[in-house]
Amino acid sequence: MPDKPHDYCGIFGAFNHPDAAVLTYYGLHALQHRGQESAGIVTATYDEHHRRPVMPLHKDFGLVLNVFDNKKIFTEKLLGSTAIGHNRYSTSGSSRNPANIQPFRVHYRDGNLALAHNGNLTNARQLRDRFREEGVLFQSTSDTELILHLISHSKKSGQIEQIVDAVSQVTGAYCLVILTDDKLIAVRDPNGFRPLALGKKADGWFVASETCAFDINDITYVRDVKPGEILVIDRNAASEQDMQSIFIPRQENTPTSGCIFEFVYFSRPDSRIFGENVDKVRRRIGRQLAVEHPLSSFLLNKYPDKQPVVISVPDSSNTAALGYANESNKLGEDCRFEIGLIRNHYVGRTFISPGQESRELKVRTKFNTVRGVLEGRPVIIVDDSIVRGTTSRHLVDMIRKANPAEVHFLASSPPIIEPCYYGMDFPSPKELIANVYDRDVSRIAESLGVDTLHYLSPQGLVEAVKFANQSDMDYCTACFTGNYPVPVTSGIDKDENDLNG
Fold it and tell me: Which of 148, 246, 273, 380, CA to CA, is 20 to 30 A from 454?
């Protein structure tokens, strides 16, 4: 099982560009970190032979580069100037069900419709039970299919009205890109759990989970899709002002709730989400960690001739570690940021190792230590989070073999104690290392094999993110605090279905 949390999906949409499918391909490639199990693209075009609009679709298991490795897919199949695409990560129980690969495409009474989804619906069980009682047959185990059924069963006239009706009936986290025969529609849930951005290139419009998908395509970021916004892009959209913008109200007494873990770990540091640059926020998180847990003076008192080194666990904690080292020095804590771990970027997800050392071997194929940096010196490891702790334990063991004077571990997030129901996959609560050791930090430190362990406080994390972020967004910290901003269906079992987009 993975030892890091996973975001379920990345989505991309392109409208009114002659290379819509190719740009979507590159956009999905940039969003590969948000899902590596499957990928798909669907386009909207007109079949001159049969004289009707059609939506050709190509999707399969694998990474983007593997799924779309034949150029003929783009020159002969995925034709048209409009497209949507999806990268998928799923819960393990149904990851090999091809019916769950997105985008989903249907033909119903009002035409063709395709949809890609990032998030989790918190009322999925209720909706599924309702449809089952009505005799609806399901093709997949994904909660994304529920949105399609809500659209097709809507009594409203017109696809836009049906989409508004459908998303008004779901709760939880969802960012959607929806393709009709003549429109691209972007939807973000009223609480704004997941990021979604709008961009422009020439006369084309684009939507993506993160702006790194714009950068690879030389697309200009325009703005974020707002929480609760349904943004309709059609041929009349010469400018942003020409788009139809409809808003879904938030549930009563629920705040905006951007996932704070997007800043901690999920999003690429070169992306802009929730109105702010991820790199800038992540550095601020590292600085807050230095304020809460200064270690260098203490270590220099013990080892006056050995300057402590701060190292990251590449790549997700690089900027937080830089922020920690820089702020420590500003506070008079003499330390130096060093590259102490080297990451091998060519390790495939299909690597299989025999025997009981599987996890350790996987860690060794992914990371290696720089002995000259670590040997004989106090080492401060900065990582973004600790989930099960198995990978952290093996990393510490590797670092110990380089003979450092001491090893101290800092997490730039609080202890993870609760599951997420808004589009993020964690192990069950009983598998989380914080719960295994009853949230006793000293016992967790002992299990990891470090001299000391320190977490960023929940308050410190929120303060760091809000300090750097100039928007008025509030953030969800449920995985750290158990405070769920949107009610979750009583008795929901995340493993019962593949409850993700």
Answer: 273
